[in-house]
Every structure is written in C-alpha cells, then in structure tokens.
UniProtKB/TrEMBL annotation:
<dbReference type="InterPro" id="IPR039418">
    <property type="entry name" value="LexA-like"/>
</dbReference>
<dbReference type="InterPro" id="IPR019756">
    <property type="entry name" value="Pept_S26A_signal_pept_1_Ser-AS"/>
</dbReference>
<dbReference type="GO" id="GO:0003677">
    <property type="term" value="F:DNA binding"/>
</dbReference>
<keyword id="KW-0804">Transcription</keyword>
<feature type="domain" description="HTH cro/C1-type">
    <location>
        <begin position="7"/>
        <end position="62"/>
    </location>
</feature>
<dbReference type="InterPro" id="IPR001387">
    <property type="entry name" value="Cro/C1-type_HTH"/>
</dbReference>
<dbReference type="GO" id="GO:0016020">
    <property type="term" value="C:membrane"/>
</dbReference>
<dbReference type="Pfam" id="PF00717">
    <property type="entry name" value="Peptidase_S24"/>
</dbReference>
<keyword id="KW-0378">Hydrolase</keyword>
<keyword id="KW-0238">DNA-binding</keyword>
<keyword id="KW-0645">Protease</keyword>
<keyword id="KW-0805">Transcription regulation</keyword>
<dbReference type="InterPro" id="IPR036286">
    <property type="entry name" value="LexA/Signal_pep-like_sf"/>
</dbReference>
<dbReference type="GO" id="GO:0006508">
    <property type="term" value="P:proteolysis"/>
</dbReference>
<dbReference type="InterPro" id="IPR010982">
    <property type="entry name" value="Lambda_DNA-bd_dom_sf"/>
</dbReference>
<dbReference type="InterPro" id="IPR015927">
    <property type="entry name" value="Peptidase_S24_S26A/B/C"/>
</dbReference>
<dbReference type="GO" id="GO:0004252">
    <property type="term" value="F:serine-type endopeptidase activity"/>
</dbReference>
Length: 230
C-alpha cells in the first residue's frame, strides 16, 4: 500500500468526503483527488501537516507505512498550527442557504426559494469569506444546470453567488436574470455592449447573447464553486 492509498483509507475511516477534507485543509476537492489517485507523487510541507492533523495520522505512517498510525501531537512540524475537522455548526464555517432563484422578466431583484431541508444548506469557511470582505447574509448557493459553462462549471456543481455584487465586470461569471430565466454566464465587453458568453467550445450551440436593458439583469457574481470534476 502506498501513501495515496493510505490517505484514502484514513479519509474513509473518518467518514469524510473529498470535499469535506478539502474544506478542512483549505484546498480544492480536485487536489484531494490528485493526491489519492497518485497524480501527486509527494505530499509535504503545510499540506502534509494539515492532512495529518485533520485525519489524526503520524506523518511517518502516512508517507512510508512505518511506526504508529496515530498522530503524536508533539511530532507536528515546528511552528505548525493544528487543524481539526469541525461539524457544520462550528463557528469556523458560515452556513449558506442552497436555493432556487425565482425571477420575473424585466423585474429587478431576486426572490430565493430554499431547497428541502436535507439539501438546503451548505458551508463555507468563515475566514475565506471574511478575508474577501463578503457579507455572509448576501451569499446564496445554487446548483449549476446544463452544459453551457463546461469545462469551468458542470451540471450538478454548486456555485456561491454574492448578491451584493451586481456590477458587470470583464470575464467575471455572474448569475443573470435573462428574460426571466436564471442563467450562469461569463460577461464580456465588445462594441460598447455587455455580452453573456458560455465557456463551452460549441459556440454554435451556445452562442453569445447581448446583455442590455431590462431583459438582462445581473443577480450576483459567482465567487466560489464546489465541484467533483477536475
């Protein structure tokens, strides 16, 4: 068994998903996938320290399969700060509502419809939100629909939208009320107009559309995504 397999085993034993482990150590779920698949050949430095702290593992056991499996707190790297997994009610997270956007063509503002209780909330690190100056009460999460934003966003991905940011910005990704439909698109500026563009390379199918007037109202900016796609 190599270190990648030991990492997977330890994560599963802790009943953590890749996304939960990634959130706890402040990396992306794709990074966890790379570690566990063997794409990453070596785990070291702060990442090694964080993984061992979260999973309660001794670094020597994780890397080489030698010695005791459990972490000895005194063996943490000098200057390292121990990382712990917290439940979703922990003060290190903000709970963000997962919603559906209810829009009307030509009408400013947005009404959000909470999803059922079992899937109606998600979490995001408080430190990440605070560092960027976002207001947590202005954040909502929605599920991506369709293929128009692949490979940036896939159907089923979760994106966090900052409802306080409705200022169009070149190359930014926004949730938009387009003729009464909630769409997630990238904005670009051309010939004096703003355009809704798709990241999908099939531009004949997903052609750009002008964003002008009451037919195209910005709901908020996409600031974070959760995805299992690499």
């Amino acid at each position: 068994m190599n270190w990648n397999q030991r990492l997977t085993q330890a994560r599963v034993e802790k009943n953590l998903s890749k996304s939960e482990l990634a959130r706890a150590i402040n990396v992306s779920p794709a990074t966890i996938t790379q570690w566990e698949s063997g794409t990453t050949k070596e785990l070291k430095g702060e990442n090694l320290t964080a993984v061992c702290s979260v999973l309660g593992l001794a670094a020597e056991w994780l890397l080489h399969g030698r010695g005791p499996k459990a972490l000895d707190p005194t063996a943490l790297f000098p200057g390292a700060r121990r990382v712990e997994v917290h439940d979703t009610d922990s003060p290190i997270f903000y709970q963000i509502p997962k919603v559906r956007l209810k829009l009307q063509a030509g009408v400013m503002g947005v009404v959000t419809e909470p999803l059922p209780e079992e899937s109606g909330k998600t979490t995001i690190l408080r430190a990440w939100v605070d560092k960027r100056g976002f207001q947590p009460e202005k954040l909502v999460a929605i599920e991506v629909k369709g293929e128009s934003m692949e490979p940036t966003l896939y159907a089923g991905d979760t994106v966090f939208i900052n409802l306080a940011d409705t200022q169009p910005a070149e190359n930014g990704v926004f949730a938009v009320n387009y003729e009464g439909e909630a769409v997630v698109k990238r904005l670009s500026r051309d010939a004096g107009d703003w355009w809704l563009t798709s990241d999908n390379s099939d531009q004949r199918k997903y052609h750009r559309k002008v964003c002008r007037g009451v037919d195209c109202l910005i709901v908020g900016r996409v600031v974070y995504k959760e995805s299992e796609h690499i």
